[in-house]
Amino acid sequence: MKMRSAILILTLALAGCGIGRVGAPPSVFDLGLDSKPVPALPAREPVALTFQAVPVLSDTRMIWRVGDSAAPKAYATFRWASSPAELVRQRITDRLSRQGPVLTDRVNLQTPQLQVSLTQFEQVYAEDGQSSQGQVLLQAVLVSGRTVVGQTRIATQAPAPTQDAAGGVAALRQASDDAADQLAQWLAVALKSSAAKPGG
Fold it and tell me: Is the dihedral of CA 73, 76, 80, 86 positive or negative?
């Protein structure tokens, strides 16, 4: 009973309930400037990036949930400046571009294609509401010619400094940067492995 009460209180607080009041325009956030250093990796050839996301991440709602609940919720008075799909795609492009060109289309079949899917981008609260973390989940496939040469699943999380929307933004910024950096490191190894194969 105490656990259910705590979750109910958390839900009402995070939802920004404003019964009987005219709501102010929602506060808008993005991931901020990309100023964090990237891993030291060798320069690489151009890659073509394709990016997709699950439908819930294709609008500007800020998603949160409690524990492993199957019922995601959205903040009522906070929004992303662009959809999480677009924010993460741009972040990955920015950070991968430090090692080499990132193209939107393949120049030819010899251009490696990196296919990325975003399946999670949300703030997850502990059941007692005392802590939360930003969680990001990516799946990536590297295609060379018409052959899949590698695939990976990247799951990152970062603690939120405050238990509110602003804390979630900070945590998701860190988790997104970490995911992009892990993707860059995996890509460097996958491209090297592909080039070393006969005919690569």
Answer: positive
CATH classification (class only), 53-196 = alpha beta
Q: Are strands 47-53 and 27-29 parallel, antiparallel or unpaired?
A: unpaired
Question: Residue 81 is inside which H or E element, if any?
Answer: none
Closest CA to 95 of 163, 181, 162: 181
Cα separation, 86 vs 153, whole angstroms: 19
CA distance 60 to 56: 9
Alpha-carbon distance values, 132 to 66, 94, 179 (Å): 9, 27, 18
Establish how many alpha carbons lie within 13 A of residue 114's alpha carbon, considering only the half-sphere containing its beta carbon: 27
- Give pTM, 2 decimals: 0.85
Contacts of 113 (CB under 8 A, 6+ apart): 47, 48, 49, 50, 106, 142, 143, 144
> Tell me: the pLDDT tens digits for 109-143?
889 999 999 999 999 999 999 999 999 999 999 99
The ranges assigned to domains in the chain are 53-196
Helices 84-96 and 165-196 meet at what angle, rounded to 10? 50
Query: By three-state DSSP, how is residue 132 classified?
Result: strand
Residues pairing with 63 in the sheet = 74
- 49-85 confidence digits (pLDDT tens): 999 999 999 999 999 999 988 889 999 999 999 999 9
